[in-house]
Amino acid sequence: MTQPTSDAVMNALPLPVMTIGRDNAILQANSAAEAFLDTSERVLIKKTLNDFLPFGSPVLALIDDVRTRGASVSEYRVDIGGPRLGLERIVDAFANPLADDSESVVLMLQERTIADKMNRQLTHRTAARSVTALGAMLAHEIKNPLSGIRGAAQLLEHAASSEDRQLTRLICDEADRIVKLVERVELFGDSGPVDRGPINIHVILDHVKRLGQSGFARHVRIVENYDPSLPPIYGNRDQLVQIFINLLKNAAEAIGPDALEGEIVLSTAFRTGMRLQARGSSERISLPIEVAVRDNGPGIPDEFISEMFDPFVTTKENGSGLGLALVAKIVGDHGGIVECDPAPRRTTFRVMLPMFSEKTAVQSSTDDVSNETSVKD
Ligand SMILES: Nc1ncnc2c1ncn2[C@@H]1O[C@H](COP(=O)(O)OP(=O)(O)OP(=O)(O)O)[C@@H](O)[C@H]1O
Ligand SMILES: [Mg+2]
């Protein structure tokens, strides 16, 4: 068998890939890039990237960034729409320096519609918001009458025969189960500004690991693969614990109680060049702290992949389907991203978070104040 040429490999890739040289000249473009820019490679190589992108496009800044830093940079949710490419073309852009050439950069674009299909779940605010409203309603309309029902069943229990007592117990148990569900939904409630500070993510992971090993993850081996030099993140301790309990619990449940070689790997890493464009502003937030939870369970069923972060989506008999929705909400509230790589035996949930700096702390405390005033208005 002959070795395929690198051109053939480039052209087989479903995503647009281009090599950008000095002065942003397009040196090379694969078939997907030709289709994306609606121009043949023959014409493309006479042009520069600036011909296609709007003036001052973040993608051009991204490429300059790669040149100066000599390291890869990714940026999520960049709007490259304009007169040439049409409006509302949102992409994730990944740029890497070309080895042994300080000017050339390899650029890969992933249009958001495809990205969405591939489960890069950026923010799930809409889904979370609908649960928030539902939560507030449930709390009032369900919890109070339920405590009445439970109380009445307990009263009946005293006078009931042992056969009937089974029924009153059933009422109490089921009422308790609903209260628990409502309490989980209530976690979505907007409880106003939360207390945040610098947090060592390893302390959180240690705590979650301990909880898991003494309970829901007793049957699996948990391996730690940490970068000890990781700087603190800016977050709320309890909420961060909640994120990783939910992810660890899902991983342990995916592996199942009978697996002999169940293993979960918790890892942390510092990744420069992970950035997210803030919604509704041109500001870009850097997300250098990556925490991953990987399990060697069977992977995620195809039909659930696109909606598994939505509330009430579950494949478990006793699942509420709120675990990942809550993860998405909290990660979003922390200004981060959660994404999933659903491969069997290597299912990975990756959380990317901003790092703590005095500036973020001051900035967000003023944000909190402005939120508060707008609520009072
Ligand atoms: N690590 C994983 N491996 C395989 N499937 C997973 C994994 N994590 C999540 N899933 C799938 O995503 C679904 C939704 O997860 P989610 O945590 O939101 O709810 P749940 O675990 O079913 O219920 P709850 O968390 O409320 O107990 C799960 O039912 C499962 O099918
Ligand atoms: Mg869960």
General description of the model:
This protein has helices at 6-12, 31-37, 41-44, 58-69, 112-117, 125-159, 162-186, 201-213, 237-255, 302-305, 323-333, 358-376, and strands at residues 17-20, 26-29, 73-79, 90-98, 101-111, 197-199, 221-225, 233-235, 263-270, 274-277, 284-286, 289-295, 337-341, 347-353. It has 3 domains: 6-117, PAS domain (Beta-Lactamase); 125-186; 197-376, Heat Shock Protein 90, CATH 3.30.565.10. Helix 8 packs across helix 9 (237-255). The protein is elongated, with a radius of gyration of 25 Å. With 377 residues, the chain is an alpha+beta fold. The longest helix has 35 residues, at 125-159. Strand 10 and strand 11 (284-286) form a beta hairpin. The chain is built from 12 helices and 14 strands. Bound molecules: adenosine-5'-triphosphate (ATP) and magnesium ion (MG). The site of magnesium ion has 4 residues, from helix 9.
Condensed summary:
The chain is an alpha+beta fold.
Class derived from helix and strand content: alpha+beta
Total beta-strand segments? 14
CATH superfamily of the largest domain: Histidine kinase-like ATPase, C-terminal domain
Rg, Å, rounded: 25 Å
What percentage of amino acids are in beta strands? 15-25%
Bound molecules: adenosine-5'-triphosphate, magnesium ion
Low-confidence stretches: 117-123, 366-377
Give a quick account of the main beta sheet: strands, pairing sense, barrel closure. Answer: 7 strands, mixed
The CATH architecture of the largest domain is: 2-Layer Sandwich
Helix fraction bin: 40-55%
Strand line-up of the largest beta sheet: 2-1-5-4-3-10-11
> What is the top-level CATH class of the largest domain?
Alpha Beta
Element-by-element helix/strand order: HEEHHHEEEHHHEHEEHEEEEHHEEH
Taken from the alpha-carbon principal axes, the silhouette is: elongated
Distance between the termini: 72 Å
Provide the residue-averaged pLDDT.
Answer: 83
